[in-house]
Amino acid sequence: MNWTQTRVSHGSKRQPERRYLVLHVPYWATDCFKRHDRTLAESTQPLVLYEKQKSALNIVAVDALAEKAGLSSDLNLAQARAAVPGLQAREIDRPFLEAAFADFADWLSFASPVVAVLPDVTAFGDLGFDVTGVTHLFGGEQAMLAEVLKRLGHIGILAQGAISSSIGASWALARYAPSTIATHEQTLEGSVLADLPIGALRLEREQISSLSQLGLRRIGQVLDYERLHLQARLGESFIRRLDQARGRVSEQIRPRIPVAEHFVERRFAEPLGLLDDVLLVTTDLALRLASELEMAGLGARSFHLMIYRVDYKLMCLSVNAARATREASHIDRLFRNRAERLSGEFDAGFGIEMVRLAATELSPLQSSQTSVFAEDDGTGDLHRLYDRMSSRLGSQAVLRTVWVNTHIPEKAAGLAPVVTAPETLSFPGEEEPRPIRLLPAPEPIKVTAEVPDGPPASMVWRRILYRFVKASGPERIGEEWWLDEFELSERRLLPPRPEDRRKPASEKPRIEILRHIIPSRDYYVAEDDGGRRFWLFRQGLYGEEPNPQWFMHGFLP
Amino acid sequence: MGSPAKQEALEALRARIAAIENRPPLGESGADLRRKQVEGFLASAPGLLHEVFTPEERNAGATLGFSLGQARALIKPDRPAVFYMGLAHESQERGLPYGPGLQNFGFAPEHLTLVRTQTMPELLWAIEEALSCRAVAAVIADIGGHPKILDFTVSRRLSLRAVSGGASVFLNRYGTGREASAAQLRWRVEPAVSEGQRFDPRAPGNARWQIILEKGLLSGDINRQGDWKLSWNHGFELDADKSIARQQAAA
Q1: Which residues of A119-132 are buried (b: 16+ CB within 10 A; e: fewer)?
Q2: Rounded to whole angstroms, how far apart are CA atoms A327 and A324?
Q3: CA dihedral (A245, A249, A255, A260) positive or negative
Q4: What Gene3D superfamilies does the record tag this protein with (chain B) (predicted)?
Q5: What is the DSSP letter of A332?
Q6: If you measure CA to CA, which chain A residue comes closest to B196?
Q7: Cα nearest neighbour of A397 on chain B
């Protein structure tokens, strides 16, 4: 389900009246195939999509031509081919279409930031918008609907839509009486719905057939009927659908992209093509957003730059700040850094028609004190530096030590991004020697040592022989006894294969220092004849199976 | 150095030379220097570009220790941050700074921020950004090999940034090659055999280094390029009996 239900409270506090736009895109599946396949787009033959269901090939989507030729999803492929010579058919790829439809929905957020896919009848076909308070940007509801339909028409997508005070009514009108704008009263009374067939209520198949047995074919007839009778015959769900359509029970749509309470945007009459132009606009938007936030007394920790391309693609850049901010130049710079990183991937397509800058994770922020007595310890500068670095290099690239409350010393310290990590806790302190540099993955070494647990006398590490003149240890670091056997075996350290070692992970930085913990290791500090001090450990004991293995784990100064 | 006037004239001259060379004066009077030696080896002024060379990558522990020891002396309440930077794919070569080890060494880990970049240009960008922040005391960067991009022009840029921002840069370099650079100081650092622990001479003791100043001039008691043996005991300690005596004897 893509929405949740709440009762509209009819108490003293009146709910603000909401307005919903529903778009119905009946031929979206075939339109999408045509966009990705030129030969289909240029062909004048009807197109159907089929799906293998059990052993039959059933039609699941048709385009406008095929529909005109009398084809529908009740048929199977053989029947359709017999009826329409020269029919083109493709097998449907549902995961692809659903993902593409989701992208399409994101892009449509240019019209309103709250967009949801409504999968009630088909997974791709209907979209719901909460357009409360945004229609004035287009010059009214009628104009907004016309504008959205016009833009979709430009990219070859046939759509119809309607606006009313409930999702249910908008859905019904979009399908059966497109381009209707229903007022709040009309929605509540159901008068605009009266002439529509009962199928417009998003009912189940059985409910529709029971209603037609009763001779009820239009919604108007149902509205006059005794509710209790209908409820007894058709179930609770029918009554809920009816109330939803009239806006007596509110439906909340679950938006696909995070809803930003504060956003500013700019539309362009002539689409932009250059990243530099987008950045210029961003500078301007950052100023406007900053002053909006200032007026509201807020700061934000996340900022999203949404770039709407003419050909339904939404590029979204997000940056995080180490602490809430509303400084325009800082926000601007974060996006410049991020854009620099992405410049290779930037693709304006056929042009950019709108840029929106939104702020989320808002928190109250006092107006900054700028007098000479203001406390200024430079931490603000430091946080801004963290933000700039994280936005350009990625948040995983700028790290600080975080302490974990455990007695296992090598698990006790990890690295976490500065922009998300909590403030550091103080570390209790460790008397035993610890390396100043730790290898992210311990490396297997060959060691000669006295059996059973004498200190190492020499080792071969990275094909070089080291002779140790001093050593201390062992320090035993035990297993985590509270983990069960399975978890321990999962975490048992396996020596990395030699070819892995020479090409360290370039794909994803490994930021957690040593995530595997193994049962019982004996650590030694060994100093070679050149004064180099190493942190080594032996896993396992001599005289036990399997034979103990030695690993190099870190360097002391 | 007799009269105060002469002393003053000398100071002024030093400042002028420093201004011409765009390098903050290193020289402080002998007494000041002696006082600070324990805390930060030579208590070099902030805002300098240092190169810390070690012949082999396996000495990485020693160079990081030396740089951190120098950087620690630059931390002030209004300049609390030290950055360690390196290329992400070289982490496994030399390891990453490790909190408990820093703590043991006497460097509070909360002062250290790690930056791991994908490419050398990003690394240089990050160094410059950090240098222009007034809360940063020092930047320590691990640079393996001899990247082409790190030429004289770039090192000049870094040294100017360091001077104007007031933070120091320590470039930890590996290998024996020395390309032209605008670094004010170039150190050659190698680990030295420790003295062992007080009650157990067979156990490795405090960190120790063999230090050679290859480039740059220090004034005061140690007023020439030279070599020293340093050890670490909650701060740098010169093995005064050996090297300083030798320095002075040579002088």
Answers
A1: ebebebbbbbbbbe
A2: 10
A3: positive
A4: P-loop containing nucleotide triphosphate hydrolases
A5: H
A6: A470
A7: B116
Reduce the secondary structure of A191-214 to three states and give it as a string: CCCCCCEHHHHCCCHHHHHHHHHC
Q: What pairs with residue A417 in β-bridges?
A: A399
The SS3 of residue A387 is helix
Question: Which chain B residue has its CA at the smallest distance from A553's CA?
Answer: B95
In contact, B186 and B50? CB cutoff 8 Å: yes
The whole-angstrom separation of Cα B18 and Cα B12 is 10
Do A525 and B204 make contact, defined as CB atoms within 8 angstroms?
Answer: yes
> Which residue in chain A has the smallest CA separation from B78?
A377
Rg of chain B (C-alpha set): 18
Dihedral angle sign, alpha carbons of residues A143, A148, A153, A155: positive
CA-based nearest distance A555→chain B, Å: 5
Q: Is-contact A33 A49, C-beta < 8 A? A: yes
Nearest to A400 among B58, B89, B113 (CB): B113
Per residue in A350-362, pLDDT (tens digit) is 888 899 999 988 8
- Rounded to whole angstroms, the Cα distance separating B103 from B114 reads 15
**Domain segments of chain B: what residues?**
27-238
To the question of pTM greater than 0.90 for the whole model, the response is no
Beta-carbon contacts of A334 under 8 Å, excluding residues fewer than 6 positions away, are: A303, A319, A321, A387, A388, A391
Q: CA-to-CA distance for A461 and A439, rounded, in angstroms?
A: 13
**Nearest-neighbour CA in chain B from A451: distance (Å):** 18
Helix B30-40 with B60-72: angle, nearest 10 deg: 130
B170, B67 in Cβ contact below 8 A? yes
The superfamily (CATH) of domain B27-238 is P-loop containing nucleotide triphosphate hydrolases (3.40.50.300)
**Buried-state track B80-104, b at ≥16 Cβ within 10 A, e below 16:** bbbbbbbbbbbbbbbbbbbbbbbbb
Band (pLDDT 50/70/90 cuts) for residue A370 is: very low
Asked if A389 and B134 come within 8 Å (Cβ–Cβ), the reply is: no
φ, ψ (nearest 5 deg) of residue B98: -120, 120
Residue A435 and residue A473: Cα distance in Å, rounded? 14
The answer, for A510 touching chain B at a CB cutoff of 8 Å, is: yes
Chain B residues near residue A442 by CB distance under 8 angstroms: none
The more confidently predicted of residues B7 and B160 is B160
- pLDDT single digits (tens) A482-538: 443 444 344 443 333 333 333 333 333 334 444 444 457 889 999 999 999 999 988
Q: Is B196 on the interface with A (CB under 8 A)?
A: yes
Where do we find the tokens 């990247």?
A: B147
**What is the C-alpha to C-alpha distance for residues A535 and B204, in angstroms, rounded to an integer?**
11
Which two three-digit tokens encode residue B127? 């160094």
Amino acid letter for position A74: D
8 A C-beta contact, residue A446 and residue A436: no
